[in-house]
Amino acid sequence: MKFTRKKLHYDDQLIQLIERYQNDFYRLAYSYTKNEQDALDVVQDSIQKAMQSYEKLIEKEKLKSWFYKIVVHTSLDFLRKHKRVQVMEDEQLQANQRNFHDAYENVDLEHALDDLPTIYREVVILRFFEDLKIEDIAFILEENTNTIKTRLYKALRLLRADLKTEEEF
């Protein structure tokens, strides 16, 4: 019996991009999944999808935005497939509390972001945490640039209102 190996079509540019921005891609996936292992799975699935469809990418100069788009869509697919409540064992919870180091300077901001509807949260994350341009975000989310600007404006208004309410307490 002879085995044939399916050849994947991609070049070093894709591999270099993934290696260079792996932490950014992981952080983006984590912002959706809120779980380390799930975020790693999303990134791994995204890499596989990118390698399988790299040949179809016409505008190679948009490689980074294209890969972000794959991560966003893979994250959303993951969340749809795995709608579940994460239950943490007492031992794991205590271990996490002992080693807890909050990377966020502002916990209220983190909670306010979590409270935003997904369409607003993803625009804020891509713009301010991933430092992407409005045009790149529009490409990633497959929306018009004016739609992205409107969502960003509304998201910032919602965040401001939410944080202002937090301050009052």
From TrEMBL:
Record's InterPro entries?
Answer: RNA_pol_sigma-70-like, RNA_pol_sigma-70_dom, RNA_pol_sigma70_r2, RNA_pol_sigma70_r4_t2, RNA_pol_sigma_r2, RNA_pol_sigma_r3/r4-like, WH-like_DNA-bd_sf
Q: Where is the RNA polymerase sigma-70 region domain?
A: 17-84
Q: What is this protein's name?
A: Sigma-70 family RNA polymerase sigma factor
Organism of this sequence: Kurthia gibsonii
The UniProt family comment states:
Belongs to the sigma-70 factor family. ECF subfamily.
Q: Which NCBIfam families does the record match to this protein? A: sigma70-ECF
> What keywords sit in the KW lines?
Sigma factor, Transcription, Transcription regulation
The RNA polymerase sigma factor 70 region 4 type domain extends over 108-159
Q: Which domain of life is it from?
A: Bacteria
Q: Which PANTHER family match?
A: RNA POLYMERASE ECF-TYPE SIGMA FACTO, RNA POLYMERASE SIGMA FACTOR SIGV
One protein family per Pfam: Sigma70_r4_2
